[in-house]
């Protein structure tokens, strides 16, 4: 019996649950540092909406996104259950093989918690600015609507693709995972990660909008903090045995594209009488020299 257990360890079939170290929360430091930096240089000026809403367009996008999401949920719920031993590691993509058999419930719980502030970083920032400065809540509602639209449509695509069952979750190959988890219908559709999709949708939208509120702060603070936190969420999904590296990479790419697309679609353009020069501009800097800026 001892020889059998040793042989099973060699092939990596019986992998124990991965413990959840509290120090992995240090991965949130980039976002906390970004928040601290922009709080220090925040001015008293009221932030203007970076995006603009059009009632008819937003109603269509919200309704269409809700219906598309419900359609994705329906397809996702049609997946059949899994039989133990029905999947083979040989069916996995080559770069994903090392993650098969991972299982870490602590990491899964951490990703479920951390994804909430990462996805909602932009509305949370808007709310903090409106409350602390006693200014208009217009940016909050604008950004919240655009984020909701982007999440609805990106989630609809994610659920639809997952219902095609490209490959099972890594935990399906772990004997340490509860049998109910391994046989659950959703365990058969791992590609691609919904957590990574949502995290990068919220993070990229935050990084595109937030620097406009704080022109004195370099955008790298916001991009580094937001993408670092979203990457932490994606990494936790791999450690939890919920997804493979290709799952979270695809989710990150999809979420980023949806965020950028919806930002560009809603981006506030100069109105009549608000013409804005575009391109590079040089201006004198004290005591000697020039500073360069670019308007998009």
Spell out the key features of this protein.
296 residues; mainly alpha; Vanadium-containing Chloroperoxidase, domain 1; two-stranded antiparallel sheet; 10 helices; elongated; disordered N terminus; disordered C terminus
Descriptive account of the structure:
The protein has 296 residues and is mainly alpha-helical. The protein has a domain at 69-76 and 95-267: Up-down Bundle (Vanadium-containing Chloroperoxidase, domain 1), CATH 1.20.144. It is built from 10 helices and 2 strands; from the N terminus they run H-H-H-H-H-H-H-H-H-H-E-E. Strands 1-2 form a two-stranded antiparallel ribbon. Helix 2 runs antiparallel to helix 9 (219-239) and helix 4 runs parallel beside helix 8 (194-213). The longest helix is centred in the middle third of the chain and has 25 residues, at 138-162. The protein is elongated. It starts with a helix and ends with a strand. 41% of the residues are buried. The model is unreliable at 1-27, 40-44 and 272-296 (pLDDT under 50).
